[in-house]
């Protein structure tokens, strides 16, 4: 098999600078710039809205703080008035004005455990806090009252 030989072509060694031309801005770059500007603008708008919401809620919190302070002052005033009204000297004076006199003698009465249990059952508010465990029934509670009073 024979291969034809070609004579190599020599290229000129003189190189010319490439021709200059105007490059147009790519649309992709324009879209990226517009998208970035839009994201920044929306972010700033959202930041302004959030800041406005925080400021409006802070005014509500300030109003509530003022209302709480006023109510605390009112509570302190009412507590002072109550203390004056419940003062022993005032109560004694008012009782004498109503015709009451101090007791000269006092005595203690013993209470039947059945009467005590009935009074406790009648005056209990249902879910009131007491020292009686929840798992005890009424008869068990009555037995406890009798044991506490030494009548068992």
Provide key terms for this protein.
4 helices; 152 residues; mainly alpha; 60% helix
Describe the structure in brief.
By secondary structure, this protein is mostly helical.
Describe this structure in words.
The chain is mostly helical and 152 residues long. The chain contains 4 helices and no strands. The longest helix has 59 residues. 1% of the residues are buried.
Low-confidence stretches: none
Extended strand count: 0
Distance from first to last alpha carbon: 133 Å
Largest sheet: none
Q: Structural class, from secondary structure content?
A: mainly alpha
Strand content: under 5%
Tell me the number of helical segments per DSSP (H or I, 4 or more residues long). Answer: 4
- The pLDDT mean sits at 83
Q: Based on CA inertia axes, which overall geometry fits?
A: elongated
Radius of gyration: 48 Å
What is the helix/strand order? HHHH
Assign a percent range to the helix content: 55-70%
